[in-house]
């Protein structure tokens, strides 16, 4: 099997997404020229779309993936959704932090070119130069392809639409990555945004990518918030250092003004994959906002989720970590270098905090600067901080040594997956113009096994080496000591193989 191939196509001339998935499942990459052409093709479609897209079909909505490719294909290929929707909506944040951002983008862009009007990709806050320089995507592009392709992806990000409004019998739903804005009264205002550039640090464009709902936890911990929940509009978002938290009064007024049933957004990890927001109200029976997050194990043991909107009801799917591959280790690093990477990550954090501290002191000395000047200074500071941190991100990526073999999915038995049907919950919408009864159902996959194995034939490797590698990958804790001990034992058995050959051919280790 070739490690680098051209983008596969079907006899009809469409991109063969199934063949593409199989190739990525074995650790392969695509010819850079083909990826470049794919970006150009898809960008031509995005450029024709308005800032706000309107959809009148049943839709399946996915949240943040952050480079976790195996979550993407697990959810896309779930037979539970088969034949139940005609359009898929992706809420942004396809890249950064995970190790397979390129694979996520190439797969989604292939689907977009195959079916432009039925694959909607919205922009997230990570689809920007400032974020991708320091959060991993630039380093990944440099390692797998080139910086030229990275800059081409950044140009593509500038063309992504911002909002999708889904029209169904149960109501209209406002889909974006972040949230609503104090600078927006009607949805039509969004079409006046010039989106074809790097997102700003304030204003409507920024809020659509960066805004957050006030969390239910905050209402529980602060009685004052709970008591006056219906008076809260917007609060400064100190966690993000930009945009706002939006409260009950703000979102309720937005929904009423625009005759919208609920906001559906991504941007925030939650434990169950899909979170419903009631903004402190004990009277609401239907949430004003849904948060969909599709990257499992992103924070501790969170599940991933997706959401189906149809004319009759809302279906919510929840998933544990996919059992096809570990999204955290698609390549097996040298254990010693892996430790160095962790050290570099710590240095990166220290550098960022140090630079932030210096700039914060400078801000205190220039309190008289105008608003416009402050905005320009903030952008310059953020660019400088990201440039400084990107050095460490790119350095740590260059230290990774790929294993000279492929990883693939172990064949599963039917009993490997248990499907739990959670009882259906009926709820109602009290706002005018909406159907009173909406059915929300939950479907959850619980996967019992998570096995990995090396895809080269076992007969090619001495059994002691094979078993040692198999155990190391399955536990995600490769042991250099155990590997060296195995090599010594093979030498003692006088097999016709050298330590150097084993290291280079099977382990990808240097002397």
From TrEMBL:
It is an enzyme of class 3 (hydrolase). The keyword Hydrolase applies. GO terms for biological process: calcineurin-mediated signaling. GO terms for molecular function: calmodulin-dependent protein phosphatase activity. InterPro entries: Calcineurin-like_PHP (IPR004843), Metallo-depent_PP-like (IPR029052), PP2B (IPR043360), Ser/Thr-sp_prot-phosphatase (IPR006186). Its EC number is 3.1.3.16. The keyword Hydrolase applies. Residues 122-127 form the Serine/threonine specific protein phosphatases domain. Keywords: Hydrolase. It catalyses: O-phospho-L-threonyl-[protein] + H2O = L-threonyl-[protein] + phosphate. It holds the Pfam family Metallophos. Belongs to the PPP phosphatase family. PANTHER family: SERINE/THREONINE-PROTEIN PHOSPHATASE 2B CATALYTIC SUBUNIT 1-RELATED. This is Serine/threonine-protein phosphatase.
